[in-house]
Amino acid sequence: MRLVPPLFSRLICIKNNSNRKTMILPILAYGDTILRKKTKSLSKDYPKLDVLLDNMFETMYAAKGIGLAAPQVGLPVRLFIVNATPFEDDEDLTEAEREFASTFVQVFINAKMVEETGDEWAFNEGCLSIPEIREDVFRKKNIKIEFYDEKFNKHVKEFNGIAARIIQHEYDHINGILFTDKLSILKKRLIKGKLENISRGKIEVEYRMRFPKTKKKH
Fold it and tell me: What percent of the chain is modeled with pLDDT above 90?
């Protein structure tokens, strides 16, 4: 999931505390088949998981994102990361939401959505795999989700508001779903040409990407 421009300056980058070198990975663009693949669960002995997580966080920050899922960097596994800290000063959110967002950075492994409840509400979403397209998406306000953290400790937690929104967006990624899938038929028709241009690399972006219908890499 990507930030709206006014929030870019608020992005707090949580760096890894190790001496490992990190790598900025290319993000797959709309149309890549991996974004639609069924993802597999990770085991505790998944090779170099710590390195992968460091690289994913580095990639997300370089692209000014607030969430990134493994399929977006070419890995069809059930893993995603979030960082809601840019929303700590967002005056459109409640005080409680801002306070929670100020420290919310989380790894989600083998996540399973337990329930989604409450009224649906609209929020203008963007995606690192679909640059320059933003649309209002309706989602349930409250969620309960089961997941493992980076140390493979199991959690069952409830989230609401903007935190739930970011998690729902990234959770969709590990199920092969993009935010554009949730738009009306009319909206889908209106952005069809833009999506085709993205898949062909006919777009300028400020971060590394891989485009499925061209050999071009940004």
Answer: 85
pTM over 0.85: yes
State the catalytic residue, choosing from 95, 125, 170, 196.
170
* Token pair for 175: 């199920």
Angle CA 119–141–12, to nearest 5: 155
Find the CATH number of the domain harbouring 52: 3.90.45.10
Residue 65 sits in which domain range? 5-210
- Tokens matching residue 124: 């203008």
Question: Is 170 a catalytic site residue?
Answer: yes
Query: Tens digits of per-residue pLDDT, 112-149?
Result: 999 999 999 999 999 999 999 999 999 999 999 999 99
Q: What's the CA gap between 186 and 90, in Å, rounded?
A: 31
Separation CA 144–CA 157 (nearest Å)? 6
At CB < 8 A and 24+ separation, what contacts does 43-46 make?
44/152, 46/77
**DSSP code at position 77:** B
Quick check: 84 and 163 in contact, CB under 8 A? yes
Does 169 fall in a domain? Answer: yes
The answer to whether 25 and 75 have CB atoms below 8 angstroms apart is: no
